[in-house]
Amino acid sequence: MKDPIKVVTEYQRNLFNHLDEFFIRATGKSATEFSTTVTFDDVIKSSNHEITSRGEAAFSWLDRELRGFYAQEASNAFSTAKQIGGMKLVLGGSSRFLHSHLTSVSTSVLYSDTVLVPDPVMPWLEKERSEEKFRHILLLKSVHALLHLKPLVDSELRYPAILVFPSWEKTLEDKDEYTQKAIWQLVADILSYYLGENLESLEDVKDYINRNPENFLAVVDTNHLFVAPGGAIEERLVDALDRYETEMETWRSQEWLNSYKKLPTQGRVFNGVVERLAPLYHLLENADEFEGYPLLCIDQQAHYYKMISATNSAKLEKLGILESRTRALVDALSSRRLRWLGGLSIETITRLREDNENVDFRRRLYEAVGRLRESVLGNVDKVAAEVCHELESAITDHEKAQRYTQKKYNRIHGQTAILAIGGAVGALIPALAPFLGVAVPFALAVKYGRDKVAELIEKRKLTQSLVGVLSTVRPQNN
Fold first, then answer.
1. Phi, psi of 118 (to 5 degrees)
2. pLDDT value of position 208
């Protein structure tokens, strides 16, 4: 039987090699040479003519190669990935992988063992996605962001820091009756809870909404059940709906828009709520499959996850693995206050993971969160404050160790200098000169050289530790 880590590592490297070749075929450059994830949109616009001329052949190649690759390898990779142990986080809430997801994963691998990422390319091959106006650009954007993690994938780690797994979400939504019923049940659970009605099925939900549109819209507005992409969670429903429709005018096909505009207001709002909740269902399913902790990197998605928590949904209750201290830590490290942790380069993160720094870092943060009362663990701001305090304490200890090291070697070099002066004076005394010769200066030079090398090694070890690296990127006013 093959080692599961070797199996998933080989699968993932093959996947990333396919994606890397595709991106170069499509743009003429590697992902990191092309742009950062922040500047991708601007660069893609300025490179539009060149990419258009190369794109058709590149996308045809990707479709052919990945379909064959998934058919042969994906099922085994998924089942094998479930055998990986350790502290695992499962990314979810969206089928895309963009800048915010990359930042969240970069932060999370500093303290988790493995971050599992649902393959953001597979959904574009599973079905036509006729509702998307810019299908190829969105696919290319996800590939670009994902490829920034390639150094982690290529590194020789004891266990994978990230694992991009096949999830078949679109296929399940379209063809699997169990998945379809479970998603609608989740929607019904949420709306039953907030509407105060016993709605057991999709038919019950639609019937209630059509009979009580004003009450439905009022409840949605009061509880912020409809949050538009990029909008504030507390935004009024009328403004959120306007923002949503403006966004859809940009990104959705005319065919989709025509169907959408035929819906009454309550139908449009219901459609938006379902669009938000369906990816959360897949996240909970994946977290259950991999026995991991749900990881949400966008505030709006976290808002809907809290809704599910409030309903005491049977789906969430299955995740008995969500131990409160770990949940609190994951939520806190995903908060705005600690997003600076995502400022490290992937190359630096890879080196830290090769040194297994995440284990000690996680232990220290767990101890910090463990000092809080159980009743406080649900307050993200308070947990984040405790984590910030612990990080500041760790950085202070690091800076103290740096000062101690500098003083220690200043003293050693000073003693060597005194010996050198003594040797030089002795050499001036004629009676001692025959016995000293050049031996003392040479020996002192060797000693100084050895001490200097030891000093540099000790300083380098401090500087390149995880806390040492964090001390260089933390906000000064944090």
1. -65, 130
2. 93
Alpha-carbon 139 to chain mean position? 18
For residue 395 the two structure tokens come to 């950085």
Non-local (6+) Cβ contacts of 247 within 8 A are: 228, 229, 230
Residue 132, beta-bridge partner list? 252
Nearest to 336 by CA among 372, 296, 301, 384: 384
Q: Which residues of 40-69 are buried (b: 16+ CB within 10 A; e: fewer)?
A: beebbeebeeebeebbeebbeebeeebeee
Q: How far apart are CA 176 and CA 7, in angstroms?
A: 28
pTM of this structure: 0.81
- Residue 420's pLDDT is what? 54
SS3 annotation, the chain: CCCHHHHHHHHHHHHHHHHHHHHHHHHCCCHHHHCCCCCHHHHHHHCHHHHHHHHHHHHHHHHHHHHHHHHHHHHHHHHHHCCCCCCEEEECCCCCCCHHHHHHHHHHCCCCCEEEEECCCHHHHHCCCCCECCHHHHHHHHHHHHHCCHHHHHCCCCCCCEEEECCCHHHHHHHCHHHHHHHHHHHHHHHHHHHCCCCCCHHHHHHHHHHCHHHHHHHHHHHCCCCCCCCCCCCCHHHHHHHHHHHHHHHECHHHHHHHHCCCHHHHHHHHHHHHHHHHHHHHHHHHHHCCEEECCCHHHHHHHHHHHHCCCHHHHCCCCCCHHHHHHHHHHCCHHHHHHHHCCHHHHHHHHHCCHHHHHHHHHHHHHHCCCHHHCCCHHHHHHHHHHHHHHHHHHHHHHHHHHHHHHHHHHHHHHHHHHHHHHHHCCCCCHHHHCCHHHHHHHHHHHHHHHHHHHHHHHHHCCHHHHHHHHCCCCC
CA angle 29, 32, 35 (to 5 degrees): 85
List 115's β-bridge partners, or say none: 89, 162
pLDDT of the residue at 316 = 54
Residue ranges, the chain, pLDDT below 70: 1, 312-323, 374-378, 397-464, 468, 473, 476-478
CB 28 within 8 A of CB 57: no
Residue-wise over 220-243: b if at least 16 C-beta within 10 A, else e? bbeebbbbbbebeeebebeebbeb
Q: How big is the CA angle at 197 (ends 194 and 200), to the nearest 5 degrees?
A: 105
